[in-house]
Amino acid sequence: MTNVAILGSTGSIGNQTLQVLQHLGDYRVYGLSAYSDIENLSEQIRLYQPEVVVVNDCDASRQLRDRFGVRTACGEPGLLELAGDPNVDLVVMAVVGFAALAPTLRALETGKKVALASKEAMVVGGHLLAPYRSQIAPIDSEHCAVWQILSGRCSQEIDSVILTASGGPFLHQPEDLSTVTVDQALQHPTWKMGGKISIDSATLMNKGLEVIEAHWLFSLSYEQIEVVIHPQSVIHSLVRFVDGSVLAHMAAPDMRLPIQYALTHPGIRPSLVSKLDLTALSGLTFMKYDPLRFPCLDLALQAGKTGGTMPAALNAANEVAVASFLNGRIAFTDIAEIIQAVIRSHRVVSDPDFEQLVMADHDAREAAVQFVKLLERKV
């Protein structure tokens, strides 16, 4: 029986992970964590009876302990304790944003396998996590696909990796996106995801973050990573080899598939995902992305190639900008404008330690907040 801790259990990935664990049967939910969704977390505790529960608020932590008789902890210290708990075999990291970096590093340093859904951890601290890449299983349809295709291959055989993007809800919209609403931006055409990642998909920032993640996960240069728009979301990634051949990974667009593979790797087992019916596909199309329409992708590529603390500044600015858009404070197109302003003003530290990344994140957030204040007057 494998003991699993799910950090970020009440989000989309966390809930789907619990479905997969229940389906597989030979995994035990040892620990759960949530930020503030106590109602959902309480139901998870009732159903899965974990040993340890972590929440952000210490009062809520005590209430859960008294109600369920479960061992509880709170805040970042609680996350770090659960991530490094010697009874945990595998950590599913689904914490959103920069906050995922510290517990991810703690889990890896204590020898655990980490099923990583929080791409931001790899984006901001890839140089810190890369030495442990053999312990990391990516929970991401694109990186899971690349991972499977590259299994058993040597680096000399690889020409390039091609990450696919659906293009989001505005691929075929009129050119002016300044007036799109939050509800429109959340309507992803193929995936059901949380608010932050849905907006990142609409701006294509998500694909930029995935390029940075792929750079660290697979030891690829940025010149070896391509992005193409593939609206059907059936081919999740492709690998081009030096002989000119291309291998593609195809599956129904369902996050439970990469979640399960991250858990059972290197084995493949029957899943909850529907089989892909090739005869039902009307066609598979590919196109280049428009950098003028989706500037966030190029901003992410710029940050990744610059390196150092620049990806941390990019990520912090994006988190602030996306939250401000979701709260109705800025326009959709202001997201890219804020990110660009922040990374232009950021002073890069070339080989940062963890504390320098924390400082870069803090400073970039403060800068982004000031730019939001300037732009929200126009909304």
Strand ordering within the main sheet: 4-3-2-1-5-6-7
Shape verdict: globular
Say how many strands there are. Answer: 11
Average pLDDT, all residues: 94
Radius of gyration, CA atoms, in whole angstroms: 20 Å
Helix segment tally = 15
Please provide the ordered H/E string of secondary-structure elements.
Answer: EHEHEHEHEHEHEHEHHHEEEHHHHH
The total domain count is: 3
Overall CATH architecture of the largest domain: 3-Layer(aba) Sandwich
The CATH topology assignment of the largest domain is Rossmann fold
Instruction: Give start-end ranges of low-pLDDT stretches.
Output: none
Give the CATH class of the largest domain.
Answer: Alpha Beta
How many angstroms does the end-to-end distance come to? 54 Å
Q: What is the helical fraction, as a range of percent?
A: 40-55%
By CATH, the superfamily of the largest domain comes out as NAD(P)-binding Rossmann-like Domain
Question: What is this structure, in a nutshell?
Answer:
The chain is α/β, with parallel strands linked by helices. The chain has 3 domains: 2-138, NAD(P)-binding Rossmann-like Domain (Rossmann fold, 3-Layer(aba) Sandwich), CATH 3.40.50.720; 144-167 and 204-280, no CATH class; 295-378, RNA polymerase sigma factor, region 2, helix turn helix motif (Rna Polymerase Sigma Factor, Chain: A), CATH 1.10.1740.10.
Layout of secondary structure:
Layout: E1 2-7, H1 12-24, E2 27-34, H2 38-48, E3 52-55, H3 58-68, E4 71-74, H4 75-83, E5 90-93, H5 101-109, E6 113-116, H6 119-129, E7 136-138, H7 141-149, E8 158-165, H8 182-186, H9 195-203, H10 205-217, E9 225-229, E10 235-241, E11 246-250, H11 256-264, H12 295-306, H13 310-326, H14 334-345, H15 354-375
Parallel strand pairs: 1-2, 1-5, 2-3, 3-4, 5-6, 6-7, 8-9
Antiparallel strand pairs: 8-10, 10-11
Helix pairs in contact: 4-5, 5-6, 6-10, 6-13, 9-13, 10-12, 12-13, 12-14, 13-14, 13-15, 14-15
